[in-house]
Design brief:
globular; 14 strands; alpha/beta; 10 helices; three-stranded antiparallel β-sheet; binds nicotinamide-adenine-dinucleotide; 308 residues; 22% strand
Length: 308
Amino acid sequence: MKVTVVGAGAVGASCAEYIAIKDFASEVVLLDIKEGYAEGKAMDLMQTASLNGFDTRIVGSTNDYSKTANSDICVITSGIPRKPGMTREELIGINAGIVKAVSTSLVEHSPNTILIVVSNPMDTMTYLAHKVTGLPKNRIIGMGGALDSARFKYRLAEALEAPISDVDGMVIGGHSDKGMVPLTRLATRNSVPVSAFISEERLNQVMEDTKVGGATLTGLLGTSAWYAPGAAVSGLVQAIACDQKKMYPCSVLLDGEYGLSNLCIGVPVILGKNGIEEIVKIDLTDAEMAHMKESAEGVSKTNGLLDL
Ligand SMILES: NC(=O)c1ccc[n+]([C@@H]2O[C@H](COP(=O)([O-])OP(=O)(O)OC[C@H]3O[C@@H](n4cnc5c(N)ncnc54)[C@H](O)[C@@H]3O)[C@@H](O)[C@H]2O)c1
C-alpha cells in the first residue's frame, strides 16, 4: 500500500504522521514544491518510527513525481490556507492553479490511484480534480465532512457534558461556514436523541459553533488547523486501504442523488478498496433538504469561478 501526500505543510505532515502511526501503509511519499521541505519533514517523521513503533517508510520529494509512481491513494493538501477573517472561497484564485497542476501530475504517474482532495475551497477543488483528470467518480473524494463531523461531536460532547465516545453525529453539505448542514435531529448519545439531554437553544448553539469551527481555530492559531484535518484524512485513507466499508460524509460528484447534480458536496458514503463504494441516501426533512439545496447553490456559485 503506497500513499502519496502532496503538500508537506501543516495538514500534509500531520496526515502523513497519522497514517504512519496507524502502520497500515508500506510507504508514504511526502511531496512539496519547496526545496528540501518534504525531505526534511519525512526525515523528522522517520526519526519518530522507533519511538512510536511503526514500520511505514516515509519518503520526501521536492516536486519529483516519479517518486509517487503507482500510488494506491494520493492526497492533495497543497495550497494556501486561510488567515483570520478569510473565507475558504477566497483561496480559489491561487489554489485552483495548484490543484489543477498537482492532480494532473499525480494521475500521470499513478493512473489507477484514488484521489483525496483536501485543499480549499474543498468542494470546488474536488470538482476541479474531476474536470482535469477525468477519473471515474468513485475515485475522487473530497475531505471535509469527516472533519466537520468530528468538530460537531466535540461540541455535542461539550454541551452534553459527556465523553466524546458517547456521542454520534454527522455533518453533510458544503465544507464552508454557511454551507455545513449539521444533522442535529439525528445526533445521539448512545442511541438516545441528543434533544433528550439539551434544549433546542443549546443545540442551535452547537450547530453554529460547529459551522464556524475552522474559523474559530484560524482566529486562535493565525492559520488553519492541522491535527484534526490530518486525523480525518488518515481515517479516510485507512478506510480505503484496509477496505473497511466505513461510512463517512465526503464530498463526491452527485448525479441526481439528494436531488443534486453536476457538483461535489458532502453526503454520507461507504469507503472501501474501490474508493466510494456507495452513496448512502438518508431521508432528510424538508428543512434539512432546503438547507442542503442552499448549500449546493453556494458550492455551484464557487464552481462558476473556475476557469474550465
Ligand atoms: N478540507 C479540509 O477540511 C481542510 C482542513 C484544513 C486545511 N485545509 C486546506 O488544506 C490546504 C493546506 O493547508 P496547510 O495548513 O497544510 O497549509 P501549509 O501552508 O502549511 O502547507 C501547504 C503546503 O503546500 C505546498 N505547496 C504549494 N504549492 C504546491 C505545489 N504546486 N506542489 C506541491 N506543494 C505545494 C507549500 O509549499 C506548503 O508546504 C489549505 O488550502 C487549507 O485551506 C482543508
